[in-house]
Amino acid sequence: MSAMATIKINVKWGKENVPCEIKPNQTPDELFNDLQSKTGVPVARQKLMARGAWRGVLKSGMAMDLKDGQNVTLMGTADVLLKPKVETKFLEDMKEEDQAKSGLVLPAGFANLGNTCYMNSTLQCLRAVPELRDSLKQTQSQDLAGALNSTYAQLDASTKPVEPATFVATLRSAFPQFAQRGRGGGFAQQDAEELYSSLLATLASSLKDGDSNIVDKLFGLELEERLSCPECTEEPEVVRKDTARKLVCNIQGGTVGENVSHLFEGLKLGLVGSLEKRSQILGRDAVWTKTSSVAKLSPYLCVQYMRFFWKATPDSADHTGVKCKIMRPVSFTDTLDVFPYCNADLQKAIKANRDKFGERVDIKKTEDEPEEKKAKMDVEEPDEDLAAALALSMEDDSAVKNRELLESCGLDKDFQGHYELFAIVTHKGRSADGGHYMGWVKREDGSWLVFDDDLVSESSWEFVQGLKGGGDEHMSYLQFYRAKKGGI
Question: USP domain spans which residues (predicted)?
Answer without folding.
Answer: 108-484
